[in-house]
Amino acid sequence: MTWIDGLLIALGAVMAVVVGRLLTGPTNADRVVALDLGFVVFIAATALLSVRLDVAAIDILVLAATLLGFLTTIAVSHLLERRPR
Amino acid sequence: MWSDLIGGVFATTGIALIAIAGLGLLRLPDTYNRINAVTKAATLGVIGVLIGVMIIKPSVTSIGLLAPAIILQLLTTPFGSYAVGRAAHRSSSPLAPITHHDELHRPPPAYRAGPPP
Q1: Which pLDDT band, with edges at 50, 70 and 90, does B18 fall under?
Q2: Which residues of chain A have pLDDT under 50?
Q3: What is the pLDDT of residue A16?
Q4: Model pLDDT, residue B111
Q5: 3-state helix vs strand vs coil in chain A, percent to 5
Q6: In contact, A48 and A7? CB cutoff 8 Å
Q7: Which value does ipTM take for this structure?
Q8: Res A85: pLDDT
Q9: pLDDT category, B117, cuts 50, 70, 90?
Q10: Shortest CA distance to B21 belongs to which of A65, A44, A17?
């Protein structure tokens, strides 16, 4: 299972891009978009870790992160609509 | 062995899509273009990774938890990205200079001359 390590390293590179966009987004909308991709990277990394570590029980984190990512995106975009820029 | 190979192809395709989305988040000029890139990864990339994991290690726990995650991701991602795009436009996020026209643009209200009705 060494190829899963390569995929996890690629996900780490994408997460570095996400953190950079979170810190230096020109507007707050860019930060919300980066947060959305951060949840996507977390979901993929958790699913790959359940294969790599051979623990099927942490797939519950995938389901929880799916719901939490949707609710976070909706809540933060409503906050963004209320306050300009 | 064959399940490892087929699941590995699915998972690698999904990770490649997520990596392309990260490149788009880094390089695209506009908030709306970045929303486009991220949404494609959030549907097809995540679904590829989760189907690959389900093929590599099929068990009751993994299939029972990952299949609802796939369905929820398909249902919630378009709505979330639509909300983000609308919020970005209402908070006057700047458009890229290559944008042709803006369908959501509203001119400021013109004041009517004369007495009010």
Answers
A1: very high
A2: 85
A3: 94
A4: 63
A5: 85, 0, 15
A6: yes
A7: 0.88
A8: 47
A9: low
A10: A17
Q: How far is CA B8 from CA A1, A12, B73, B112, in A?
A: 10, 18, 21, 66
Alpha-carbon distances of B105 from B26, B68, B101, B116, rounded to whole Å: 27, 38, 9, 27
Q: Does B84 contact A29 at a Cβ distance shorter than 8 Å?
A: yes
Name every residue whose Cβ is closer than 8 Å to that of residue A78 and which is 6 or more positions away in sequence.
B83, B87
Chain B residues within an 8 Å CB radius of A38 = none
User: Which residue spans within A20-83 are E strands per DSSP?
Assistant: none
Tokens of B61: 């726990």
- Looking at chain A, which residue has its C-alpha nearest residue B55? A51
Q: Tell whether B94 lies on the interface with A, counting CB pairs under 8 A.
A: yes
**In this predicted model, what pLDDT tens digit does every residue of B65-84 receive, in sequence order?**
999 999 999 999 999 999 99
**Domain map (residue ranges) of chain A:** 3-82
Chain B residues 48-67 within an 8 A CB cutoff of chain A: 49-50, 53, 56-57, 59, 61-62, 65-66
Cross-chain Cβ contact B15/A26 below 8 Å = no
